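Minutes, project check-in
Item: structure for the 282-residue chain
Input as provided by the requester:
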Amino acid sequence: MTGKTPFDLDSLFVIPEFDESQMKTMMAEAYERCQANPNAFSNWFPAVEVAGIRHPKTSTITLSPELQSTLLDGKPADAQVETQIDALVQAIQTFGTEHGYPLFIKTAFTSAKHYWSEACALPDGHPQTILAHVCELLNFQGMNGIETFTPELVVRKMIDVAPVFTAFEGQMPVTEEYRVFARDGVIEGYQPYWPVDSIQKPSIAAWQEALKAISTPTGKDLDFMINASERITRSLKGYWSVDFLKDKEGKLWLIDMAEGHRSYRNEADFRIITQPEQDLSC
């Protein structure tokens, strides 16, 4: 025996207790921070609508922090939250009836698209299916430290695409996509969306050849993406990544945006676009 006081490991893992008032204040502060995040869908999407850039039919449904906490905790909902859940389900069902299933759903920050069939691709309007997919999205966002809450759920008409194969856990359709980087209305460059080393569990053996075949835009497509990215970043100001998806008819759609410094840039495949120098002799 050394005579020293035994080390109490439990003291290192004391979780502070909060009363209901403190918890509500903390939730409200976290929710306000999420709403103010420039990457939140509703902070950039209105500029896309005003600019008239092609995008999927979209509806947003406000999600309270109380609703999200209830769904994540798996606890029985009180009457107020139960009403909110019913309204959420009904709003999605209404959108699905108008635009058809499957729908594409996401939080304000992420779609968890690698888990396609369990997350963002909503196959039908059954209440249990809807809530299972919403919970998957909320769990993914929280587990990946993206944000504590999402200000809204984003519900979109699914773009009809021509995938060259499927990949990842959710067998996500891999199709022609690009990410463009632009700053204050000036294009910097672009990259094919999917790096070769990002692909997991491809559905075909010759997936690398298939991916390469959809990694170079036509001149017309590139002009469209440059014009759209310059217009939208000139409106929003700052440095942004702008994501485009091609449908089965060959049309490009603006599907997502994020601050450029928070977006993955694949230097190996990044293609710089040099702007023509201005003639200052006039």
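Outcome recorded: Residues 79-99 form the longest helix (21 residues).
No further action items on this chain.
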